[in-house]
Design brief:
- About 10% of the residues lie in helices and about 40% in strands.
- By secondary structure, it is mainly beta.
- The strands form 2 sheets. The chain has a 4-stranded antiparallel sheet with strand order 2-3-4-5, with no helix packed on it. Strands 1-6 form a two-stranded parallel ribbon.
- The longest helix is centred in the middle third of the chain and has 10 residues, at about 40-45.
- The protein is flat and about 70 Å long.
């Protein structure tokens, strides 16, 4: 389980910043696939008509996790940069670290 902060100081390469500033962190999510992209048009044209499946369908899935991609947005100039962290099964954006309990237990 990975807990990652919702805001982080990171370098901003924008001309107005050019220094380490606070960045808002969100998990990257891929956008909706376009129907008019060249590869999709080519695939649809090849699939049309008789003959069944024309391209190989991948079945030998080996990985159980995905690498986590993060989108960092500069608070000052709104510039966005993408970064990634290592593989993990559970990823969570936490408020600010671990919460300490009020009453000590020892």
């Amino acid at each position: 389980m990975v807990n990652y902060p919702k805001s982080k100081k990171s370098y901003c390469a924008d001309k107005s910043c050019n220094t380490h500033t606070n960045h808002k962190v969100v998990q990257y999510k891929a956008g909706k696939a376009s129907l008019c992209a060249q590869g999709k048009r080519r695939y649809d044209a090849k699939q049309k008509g008789f003959g069944g499946q024309t391209k190989p369908v991948f079945h030998k899935k080996a990985k159980t996790t995905k690498k986590i991609s993060l989108k960092l947005q500069c608070v000052k100039c709104k510039r966005v940069k993408l970064t990634h962290i290592k593989r993990c099964k559970h990823f969570e954006l936490a408020d600010q670290g671990r919460k300490k309990s009020k009453d000590p237990t020892w």
